[in-house]
Amino acid sequence: MALSFKKDLEKYKEIDEDEILNKLSEEELKQLESALEELDPENALLPAGLRQKDQTVKTATGPFNRDNLLQYLEKEALEYKDREDVVPFTGEKKGKVWVPKEQPIESRKEEVTTLDPELEEALSSATDTELCDLAGERTNETENILEMRNTSDHH
């Protein structure tokens, strides 16, 4: 049974669809189009604009100009009168006014480090290169040591 069905389909492989469509009149093409569109009008895979046939036969009134359209829409919106409120706003405030909770401000105190007098004397008399060698690399640690040295000089 399946083989006879395939044999029946073989004869349709040789048909030239374009030739058939070219032979149809404008009226027949419109009928064919409407018949094809009625097969599945609720096809969710198609975009909404393509789910029904184009029913407009008008010619374009002019070229599309976005700026002119926007100007027209803004002008129309400004000229359009708003509807009156049924209940006018009185300005009365109801309920409590929200007040944010005050969070305690964290005060950070600088830690004061005290060094042995010998170490403090060695650091204060050391040159910058010696301090960098002590720190190992020129990183944030180097800046911290230089800063400590400067603050100890001021005290």
From TrEMBL:
Keywords: Coiled coil, Cytoplasm. The keyword Coiled coil applies. GO terms for cellular component: striated muscle thin filament. GO terms for molecular function: tropomyosin binding. It holds the Pfam family Tropomodulin. InterPro entries: TMOD (IPR004934). PANTHER family: TROPOMODULIN, TROPOMODULIN-2. This is Tropomodulin 2. The lineage of its organism: Eukaryota, Metazoa, Chordata, Craniata, Vertebrata.
